[in-house]
Structures
1.
Amino acid sequence: MTEAKKVSLVLEDGTRFEGVSFGYEKSVAGEVVFYTAMTGYPESLTDPSYTGQILVSTFPLIGNYGVPSDELKNNINEFYESNKVHISGLIISDYSAEYSHWNAIKSLGDWLKESNVPGIYGIDTRALTKILRVKGSMLGKIEFEDDAIEFYDPNAENLVAVASTKEKEVYGDGEHKVVLVDCGVKNNIIRCLLNRNATVIRVPWDYDFTQEEYDGVFLSNGPGDPAKCGTTVENIRKAIAMEKPIMGICLGNQLLARAAGAETYKLKFGHRSHNQPVLLNGTDRCFITSQNHGYAVAPDSLPADWEPMFINVNDDTNEGIRHKTKPFFSTQFHPEACSGPVDTEYLFDEFIENIVKFKKG
């Protein structure tokens, strides 16, 4: 048995946690954030929205159901949300090297080693999460002995350019042509569109998709600061002028808002969980949603012809916007979930219905 190697997590305020390595043994730096989901670590670790981040799981036991296969269906990974692990590092309380699941082919630790991503267990994640809740998301670094590194702020660069596809790709051959602006898209967004008779035209974040022949535009999730995606915002403005249906998710909500003329801002510690309650504006309908974001839309900055669509019940932050008369809307949460609840997947149906209505004139 390999001897456990000691490793440290150091926060920018000087706080230090000592733990044991179970992943790849290299020092890394990034933004330390926490998520409260109890399950779904294969999906979370492959979510491009976590690019540049050291992820802390508040659920104490991780790894007990291993990691699934990486088989493809419709030319995308069937059980992952992208084709690789996107987090910079993983921090957990207790690691289960033994795993049991019908679809598991390897342990979480082996997967992290193959992906060159460090992992630490034996950390008091309750204490760590309390620090992040009080002080907000912080810069941090996972350090091994004799491998000292500097702190690194991933939000200082355009992470969308890192996470986005590099070239146009087409999925399916459905009736409805949907341009998917890939800012760091999750695979289940593509699956949900394919399941609704769509041809998905996936394009890079800075691609002028208005030159394509399409029936609707889908703005994906993704990492980092929406203010750094000026090219995308300009293309969305052109799409708004064309009046074809638009739907956005997560970062897509923020980009649509900025294209409409609104402002965005950084949240103290973000929303990363499977149990965020949101209220449909103007109703008593509440939904439990999956979320992963560190920025939000300032609703007071929305122009007069736009309005909030959903509101977070916990902190009253914006959870979606819509145009008052045209077929444009977006959500800050993830209707496609994966992992998480699928209470709001019906919004994909509304997007397709908007396309059908538009095509009929």
2.
Amino acid sequence: MLPEVYTRHRLVPAKGFADLRVGDLYPLPSRTLGDANFVAFQAVSLDNHPIHYDGEYCRALGFPGPLAHGLQILCFTAAGAGTFPHEIGTALIGMIEVRARILKSVFPGDTLYPLLEITELKPQRTTGLVTMRASVTNQHGDTVLDGEHVYLLRLEADATSDASG
């Protein structure tokens, strides 16, 4: 059972697996990428290729600036940035699969709009699989990333104990 302080400060009402529906949308906060995003990702990924960090190198190749790393764009689809994991609370066991296709380049100054959408719900004996489409569009409405997340949930989480205090 979760501490009462958690239940008093719950961001959204609790949902169990049975409450989820195909088509449920989970928009994530938009972000405009700046130099700090590129520097932070370089520090985490240890990727030192100049295509991601050297503006002059990129311009010499015909790009307007450094290209965001594909994994960096994928990171913006983290469910924890939105309400989904707060809704399902203790039912969440974890993310068990992720796939993504990078469709367009992303540069400093681009604004990204990530979105998760439930596309499949597969109940099992004691757990369930939630498949979500993960997409990211830019300020021009172009899809720059299209992918999928799969989460494993308990079917019978203690949703009532963490839903009210």
